[in-house]
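Practice problem: Carboxysome shell carbonic anhydrase
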Amino acid sequence: MVSERDNDRLLAHETEVKDAFDRIEPFLKRLSARQHEADFVDKAQDMARAELGFELPRQVLDNAWIQQLDIRHLFAWCVFETYRAYADDFFRHQPLAPDPQEAERFQTWLQECGFHAVDVSPCSDGRLAHVIRYVLRLPHGLVRRKSFAGAMFDVEASLRRWVETELSRYRERVPNTADSLTRYLKLAVYHYSSSDPDHQGCAAHGSSTDRAAEGARERLQDFQQAIENSFCCGASIDLLLVGLDTDTDAIRVHPPDSGGDLDPARFIDGASLFDETVGLDAQAARERVAERVAAVASDSEPGMRRFVAGLLENNFAQIAYVRAHHGGHYGDVGHNERFMGVGMGFEEVQLRNLTYFAYLQTVEEGAPDLDVGVKIFSGLNVERGLPVPVVLRFDYHGQVPGARERAEARTRRVAEALRNRFPRLAEQGLLHTLLAVRDCGNNGTLEVIGSSLERTGTGEKH
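Answer key — structure tokens:
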């Protein structure tokens, strides 16, 4: 049931990407100790090329003999260059993309479960950034993900996405025809910490597991009510609530009852079920999972039970992954994100604790998520004198006239608004932004359009 080949592939990706980011601080510490040596600039560039794979801004190095080396500037520069290389490699080589047969099998299985689309809203906490490809083992290109603090997703935005999906079924017969008896599945993922529930749970809900689960449940119900009030009966969508233990990546799934209602107290625990099936062959384990799901969710629709069982089976692979490669329990049970991702996009980020997300169109709209993110990075970076690195990005569809220009204008507006929201951090060099846009309709790579590092007067651009 657990694919070692897939786990090896995911481990290689996680190791390569995180190692690239984690080399930055040790490198800068060594560099700082050598800033007054003869030929420092040339030595620094040699070190950077050899250890990081790119050069550093020369004027910052040239100024080191006049004043202290600007480590804040170099830290942000290195994070942004590392991110850009990682993102470009991801879009060019698609290291996690499913092959055509795998994608076809997923779509077939999904429709056999009675669904034509899966829309997932996890918490924006970086410990859930890998929820699609790793935790749930779903194909990231075929499942929609938008993250919000506390999994409190934007109901109106989700409603628009539902409309777009249904219109595609009417107009383009994608992913199936409008008269097919399938439904749209909205899934919210809250989180908790099994080792330190009172401190390492969801910050947006005061580390309360009960509040996190209830908040996600209420938001799902609001979404269903919005569709019922605006269009038709709720039979066109289904809801599912999932909890994630961020210490172990084990999930608990809350299946709906016969009326589609969710109960946070009713769930199947993935960790317990994994232990129960250890030693069984794949078929016996699959049958045991189906039995446990049926026992808890006997009143759920058969297709929903099949989908829930599939999620639990998929999660077994991630539980095995964490036990094999992280001792069964992550060492960084708390926040350890490397940068903030702000705007719209970031489908390439499928790794735990790599990015804190703040999906937004305007700073005012996304203020709660931004504030939580800056608070997290104040503890991770600012208290140590390092800046908050923010990748500000808006993806666009190149086939739409004027889309790129609007994406660029929005990116620059949000960058200025972000600076105005956190003026003290920005003025002290403790908040830096990389501005980028991307043509997602053409699977393009990033186009960097600016950076706050240009304000320092180096004259060098990313």
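Discussion: The mean pLDDT is 95. Students who identified this feature from the tokens alone can consider the problem solved.
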